[in-house]
Input
Amino acid sequence: MNRYCIVLELEEKFVKNFKDLHKDPWPEVLKALKENGCDEIIIWSHKNSVIVFYESEDLDETYRKLDKNEIFQKWGALEGPWIKEGVSKDKEGKFITLEKIFDLRQQISGELTQF
Output
């Protein structure tokens, strides 16, 4: 299982909406995330940015599958306008993930890997 981290910048006027939606997510979205390859997702908020941690074999493949899911399309249509464009994906549509520079468990065992 790979671990990914991304940062999303929210439109300031929608920060509360984003937080409220994610504190009380739709059960169908939770099920779709698990069924399509997300083993874990944790989101932290700081001002109008959120840090999203994922555990998934392949984050981009997971979202290719989710993009075909009707309930996830509705979720995305709702939250999509709240996220500033161009900060989470590159020109090819792949997620821009943060560079990992420290991992206690990996470095104790002698190897730092990106995921």
